[in-house]
């Protein structure tokens, strides 16, 4: 199995957190693959695009990276109390581009993190439901960063240790 895949649903503050996670994963002797979901430029997933056999250069490489991953770290902002569209769209495409969509997540540890304008707690609940449904072992501890709550380095280290263990 490969290293840790770190998904960032946006640029800016969540990407900066993703980079800190990657640095900590690498310092722990593991491989870290950072994926900026905004740079993939995935088309909007629809049944019609799926039935039409729409192809995209990212499908095959992302599919394999997700299958090979030992664990995942997901960094995303809260959008309207839920998951940002880039992340939902990515999960939808990956779940249709594999003979066994659960291979991306089943039994793998997943850590959740967010830098959001608000509290981010609805996002954590929504992501926990989604990734648990896909078979992942979502860690109980999460990282939520905002104006009132700065990044806690101990939380970052703890989440990395949970994902690489």
Q: What can you tell me about this protein's structure?
A:
This protein has 165 residues and is of the alpha/beta class. It has a single domain (4-164), classed as Rossmann fold (3-Layer(aba) Sandwich). It contains 6 helices and 6 strands; from the N terminus they run βαβααβαβαββα. The protein has helices at residues 13-27, 47-51, 57-68, 85-96, 121-133, 153-164; strands at residues 4-8, 32-36, 71-75, 109-115, 137-138, 143-145. Strands 1, 2, 3, 4, 5 and 6 form a 6-stranded parallel β-sheet that branches. Strand 4 (109-115), helix 5 and strand 5 (137-138) form a beta-alpha-beta unit. Helix 1 packs across helix 6. The longest helix is centred in the first third of the chain and has 15 residues, at 13-27. The radius of gyration is 15 Å and the shape is globular. The protein starts with a strand and ends with a helix. The relative contact order is 0.19. The model has no long low-confidence stretch (mean pLDDT 93).
